[in-house]
């Protein structure tokens, strides 16, 4: 999820978030080949602002595409039925014929991260889906939440499922998420990145200005596997947990809307 600089936050964050975001961490490389940018564009993702990170490429502010994604997603069938609704990728988590539990582990004991992860998990499990989540403190997890520090507008990032399994890492930026951040604001970003891990795209991917502001940006749809989820809105999905941009305001909170619940229940 990428940070949207709302008016309420502008005075506090404009210098650090807008100008200092030019600084890169040691895990990023600003040089991305034209071949890779072309592949990303052909897959339906925006080639603007793409950076090379550990494990692949960071696109659209919070989505990590691996080299495998660049090869395999292009082979998916395109199933676009409308412009702005809830979307999933063609890659989903295999739940089998019953319920599957995915384990989630934190690499930090920061109190609000623990509480926020538990809240994000609670939101999913409250829907009684075929896919459930459980936080663990030891052993191997299906999804690892890893904190890092980087001066940028990225709040968190994750990728899409592969081989019937969720994407294994959620990166959370402690440049924004200090110990003073409200639990619900942090939980919303974690739940959003968990959504990517299990195969959901941004609900406003056809017009990111809806949640990010600025000019309308149509990310395209060629071969990306953005599959419309029946029963979800035919216009912008207000308040959805999968909107592209979020906030760190203490009042920011996006629990699942009725449309979100329809999408999650339909897929899982």
How does this structure look, described?
The chain has seven helices and twelve strands. The longest helix has 15 residues, at 111-125. Mean pLDDT is 78; it is low at 5-29, 74-85 and 218-224. The protein has a five-stranded mixed sheet with strand order 7-6-8-10-9, covered by helices on one side. Strands 2-3-4 form a three-stranded antiparallel sheet. It has helices at residues 7-19, 34-42, 67-72, 111-125, 183-197, 209-212, 258-267, and strands spanning 2-3, 51-53, 56-59, 63-65, 87-88, 100-106, 131-136, 143-148, 156-157, 169-173, 227-228, 245-246. With 268 residues, the protein is α/β, with parallel strands linked by helices. A hairpin with a 3-residue loop joins β3 and β4. 27% of the residues lie in helices and 16% in strands.
């Amino acid at each position: 999820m990428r940070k949207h600089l709302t008016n309420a936050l502008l005075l506090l964050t404009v210098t650090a978030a807008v100008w200092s975001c030019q600084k890169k961490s040691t895990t990023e490389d600003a040089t991305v080949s034209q071949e890779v940018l072309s592949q990303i564009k052909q897959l339906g993702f925006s080639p603007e602002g793409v950076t090379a990170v550990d494990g692949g490429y960071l696109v659209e502010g919070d989505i990590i595409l691996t080299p495998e994604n660049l090869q395999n997603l292009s082979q998916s069938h395109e199933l676009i039925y409308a412009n702005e609704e809830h979307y999933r990728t063609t890659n989903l988590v295999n739940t089998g014929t019953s319920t599957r539990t995915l384990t989630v582990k934190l690499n930090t004991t920061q109190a609000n991260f623990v509480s926020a992860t538990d809240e994000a998990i609670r939101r999913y499990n409250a829907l009684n889906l075929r896919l459930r989540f459980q936080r663990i403190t030891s052993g191997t997890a299906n999804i690892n939440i890893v904190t890092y520090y980087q001066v940028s507008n990225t709040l968190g990032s994750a990728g899409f499922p592969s081989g019937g399994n969720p994407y294994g890492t959620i990166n959370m930026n402690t440049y924004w998420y200090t110990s003073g951040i409200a639990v619900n604001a942090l939980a919303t970003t974690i739940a959003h990145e968990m959504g990517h891990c299990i195969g959901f795209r941004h609900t406003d991917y056809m017009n990111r200005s809806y949640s990010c502001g600025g000019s309308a940006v149509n990310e395209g749809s060629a071969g990306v596997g953005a599959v419309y989820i029946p029963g979800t809105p035919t216009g912008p999905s207000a308040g959805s947990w999968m909107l592209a941009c979020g906030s760190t305001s203490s009042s920011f909170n996006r629990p699942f809307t009725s449309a979100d619940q329809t999408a999650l229940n339909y897929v899982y």
